[in-house]
Amino acid sequence: MRSPTGVARLIGSTVEIFPVPEWLSSTLSGTQFGSLRRQYIRSTGGKTAGATKETTGATEPVLEYSIRMNPRAFTTPGLSLAPTGAALGAEIRGLDVCELTGAEFAAVHRAWLDCSVLLFRGQHLSDADLIAFSRRFGGLDWAPIQETGRRFVEGHPEIYVVSNVIENGVPIGSLGSGEAVWHTDMSYLERPPKASILYALEVPPSGGDTWFCSMYGAYESLAPALRDRISHLTLKHDATYNSGGYVRQGVTAVDDPVTSPGVYHPLAPVHPESGRRVLYLGRRRNAYIAGLPLAESETLLDELWSCATRDDLTWRHQWQPGDLVLWDNRSTMHRRDPFDPDSRRILHRTQIQGETVPAA
Ligand code: SIN
């Protein structure tokens, strides 16, 4: 099936256009793609499917419309956006995040939704500055309790310390120096944070890189039959272990995915701001798909995970002190490489509250 400007494929109730037609990519941002999708849902729910048919070349009413995005580099006075060239991520240059005007913040917000991960280098932030910048995106969740039982930076309950440093025999932060496995932050909550911001104070000379993967790309890479199969399934997001493999405070270690504590979310929710569907996996350990025999759940999860963390869906960040990385927690997962335990790594993180629960 051909539309005037791109190839349109009808998959079940979803029409995909690829490549994105010039008239769309030059006039709409990623956020607006979301409203476009909603507009089409409305129009096809009524009697106006003709407009959609004309645009997409679809031969049936279109219930859902998804497009792959290709963020473009742009420069405006004092600010430039350089996409990483990978499936996600961009660097914003020329901004001090403590001094953003309303227009600059609007550009950052749009770029964050379009690119899922943003890097700002050379920042000089106190904890109060980090909190102030984070609050521009919404209310903040308190940091999870660290493995040691310590909750947060004194006076700043919003700040989660990621560190291997030990002072007076006590770790100052979480996650040690080993690998932190692929995960989405705090998805064991009913309403997980919509974003996280990680700011580097000290980093080791090598190792400790953080990798991000696109869960839009993961969903879009699934075969249509697999998408249909997971469309009504929900997944338990385990609350027992953190990504460093440590048992969370106050939780008894359980290694049975069926009985371990956690919260169920749809496997393929719609991102509330972009309107695009994602694969929502959270973390692998103790994950369990509701209603399936455990062996079947494990097999299906292995298949989904092998699609999600493919090299072509990932971007790797090598840290420098002063780097600030902001990610969309609904459309990405991340993991961290191990590093030399004798070197120091200290990062401070905030979590921006989700406004909605993940919904299919
Ligand atoms: C995290 O999972 O938020 C920390 C990632 C890192 O240590 O780079």
Short structural description:
By secondary structure, this protein is of the alpha+beta class. The relative contact order is 0.18.
CATH names the topology of the largest domain as: Double-stranded beta-helix
Rg over C-alpha atoms, rounded to the nearest angstrom: 21 Å
Characterize the biggest β-sheet. Answer: 10 strands, mixed
CATH class of the largest domain: Alpha Beta
Mean of pLDDT: 81
CATH A-level architecture of the largest domain: 4-Layer Sandwich
Overall 3D form: globular
Write down the domain tally.
2
The total strand number stands at 22
Beta-sheet strand percentage?
25-35%
Counted by DSSP, the helix tally is 8
Bound ligands, named by name, code or SMILES: succinic acid
As residue ranges, the low-confidence spans are 1-70
Q: Given the helix and strand composition, which structural class is it?
A: alpha+beta
Question: How would you portray this structure in words?
Answer:
Mean pLDDT is 81; it is low at 1-70. This protein has eight helices and 22 strands. Strands 4, 5, 6, 7, 8, 9, 12, 14, 20 and 22 form a ten-stranded mixed beta sheet that branches. The protein is an alpha+beta fold. A hairpin with a 2-residue loop joins strand 4 (74-76) and strand 5 (79-83). The chain has two domains: 7-67, no CATH class; 115-360, Clavaminate synthase-like (Double-stranded beta-helix). Residues 162, 175, 180, 185, 198, 210, 243, 334, 336, 347, 349 line the site of succinic acid (SIN). Succinic acid is lined by residues 162, 175, 180, 185, 198, 210, 243, 334, 336, 347, 349.
